[in-house]
Amino acid sequence: VLLIIFIVTAPIMTYPIAVDLPQRVLNPPPQLVEPPPPIELKIDASNQVSWNNSPVATGELQQRMEQEVQKDPTNQPELRIDASPDSEYDVMAKVLAAAKNAQMKKIGFVQQ
Fold first, then answer.
1. What pTM value is reported for the model?
2. pLDDT value, residue 22
3. Domain assignment present for 3
4. pLDDT at 11
5. Which domain covers residue 72, as residue numbers?
6. Does residue 7 form part of some domain?
7. Spans in the chain with pLDDT lower than 70
8. Does residue 5 belong to any structural domain of this protein?
9. CA distance 41 to 110
10. How many structural domains compose the chain?
11. Which phi and psi (to 5°) does residue 104 adopt?
């Protein structure tokens, strides 16, 4: 008996739901731009910093990072930091401060 009542009343209990569907646009979305090659930043055990396998002073890092950001602020390269476990924390702090001050958005750490 309950099943029959449910079958009879179920079609009555329907409610319309308003759904906002996406509309077709005349202008297609912009094409995705290929990201620039990543910057490989390595800090070795003797605290020497290398920018894409060429030695660089920590004082030059922020200037180089700013140059990379200014090339295309919306499509920045990824900064990949590979620090030796034997390197000093002070050097890593200087690298991260330079990246922050240069407004680098993509920062990653390489695991060994």
1. 0.69
2. 81
3. no
4. 65
5. 35-112
6. no
7. 10-14, 112
8. no
9. 10
10. 1
11. -75, 135
Residue 27 is classified by DSSP as: S
Strand ranges (E), the chain: 39-43, 49-51, 54-56, 79-83, 107-109
pLDDT at 31: 79
Residue 26: CB atoms within 10 Å: 4
CATH of the domain at 81: 3.30.420.270
Question: To the nearest 5 percent, what fractions of the chain are helix, strand and coil?
Answer: 35, 15, 50
pLDDT of residue 69: 93
Q: Is residue 6 part of a domain?
A: no
pLDDT of residue 78: 95
Radius of gyration of the chain (CA): 27
Residue 4 Cα distances to 12, 15, 28, 66, 104, angstroms: 14, 21, 53, 74, 66
